């Protein structure tokens, strides 16, 4: 436990800080930066848990203070004070741990970068589904509002749009466990809409849907920052252009 490297964050934060040793976390707690409700990353369960659920760590970070009676004793230190040296603050420690100083900028934690990429993929997938739903539902809005089965059958993309709305809402709530279903929707949607636009001789809609579907699929796959950004841009751009084409025509 003494040599363990830990990551921490508050419940309201999305980015982790670390790595810290237990003693460094105890120093942060002494400075008021850490509480018993602060979340720590448990590598065994791959979950964020409150610090107070780990008795061993709590004993280090918040030790019981014992009353001791000590005789005053003069202590001579061998360290020499450097008047030009700047004191190290808690913020300096946090910046160093997160790779934001000159000495540590090349030692940033890859898990934090992966978490950022996953967040970008989640947001990109959500916006892509919203744009796709707009392009699928709005042209057939009158048929949907009328409830006429015959009119709805003439607008099959409306049903796919309703599915996309449901997926967008759930991804917006952070339900990344649906990624396997989103991948299936991306592949199935590309096949269905691709066939419709190919049969109708609409190549621009076909290209836009292909780019958007590929981006949507890859948003659920990539865990590296640059590929995740590219996938999100492809998904949002492709489906956004598809929606514009469908509404404009």
Report on the architecture of this protein:
It is a single chain. With 249 residues, the chain is of the alpha+beta class. It folds into two domains: 1-63 and 91-105, 2-Layer Sandwich (Dna Ligase, domain 1); 111-248. The protein is 57% helix and 6% strand. It has helices spanning 22-30, 55-61, 90-97, 110-137, 141-146, 149-153, 157-172, 179-199, 203-219, 225-248; strands spanning 6-9, 17-20, 39-42, 47-50. The protein has a four-stranded antiparallel beta sheet with strand order 2-1-3-4. Helix 4 runs parallel beside helix 10 and helix 8 runs antiparallel to helix 9 (203-219). The longest helix is centred in the middle third of the chain and has 28 residues, at 110-137. The radius of gyration is 27 Å and the shape is elongated. The model has no long low-confidence stretch (mean pLDDT 80).
Q: How do the strands and helices of this protein lay out in sequence?
A:
Blueprint: E1 6-9, E2 17-20, H1 22-30, E3 39-42, E4 47-50, H2 55-61, H3 90-97, H4 110-137, H5 141-146, H6 149-153, H7 157-172, H8 179-199, H9 203-219, H10 225-248
Antiparallel strand pairs: 1-2, 1-3, 3-4
Helix pairs in contact: 4-7, 4-9, 4-10, 7-8, 8-9, 9-10
């Amino acid at each position: 436990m003494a040599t363990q490297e830990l990551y921490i964050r508050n419940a309201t934060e999305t980015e982790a800080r670390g790595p810290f040793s237990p003693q460094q976390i105890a120093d942060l707690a002494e400075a008021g930066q850490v509480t018993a409700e602060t979340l720590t990353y448990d590598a065994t369960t791959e979950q964020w848990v409150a610090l107070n659920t780990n008795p061993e760590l709590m004993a280090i970070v918040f030790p019981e203070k014992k009353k001791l009676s000590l005789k005053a004793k003069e202590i001579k230190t061998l360290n020499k004070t450097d008047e030009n040296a700047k004191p190290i603050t808690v913020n300096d420690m946090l910046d160093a741990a997160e790779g934001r100083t000159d000495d540590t900028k090349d030692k940033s934690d890859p898990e934090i970068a992966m978490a950022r990429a996953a967040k970008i993929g989640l947001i990109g997938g959500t916006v892509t589904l919203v744009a796709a739903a707009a392009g699928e539902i709005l042209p057939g809005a009158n048929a949907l509002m009328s409830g006429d089965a015959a009119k709805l059958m003439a607008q099959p993309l409306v049903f796919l749009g309703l599915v996309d709305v449901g997926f967008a809402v759930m991804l917006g709530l952070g339900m990344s466990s649906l990624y396997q279903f989103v991948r299936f929707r991306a592949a199935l949607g590309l096949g269905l809409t691709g066939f419709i636009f190919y049969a109708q001789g609409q190549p621009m809609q076909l290209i836009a849907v292909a780019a958007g579907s590929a981006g949507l699929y890859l948003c659920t796959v990539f865990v590296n920052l640059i590929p995740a950004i590219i996938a999100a841009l492809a998904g949002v751009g492709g489906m956004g252009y598809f929606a514009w084409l469908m509404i404009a025509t």
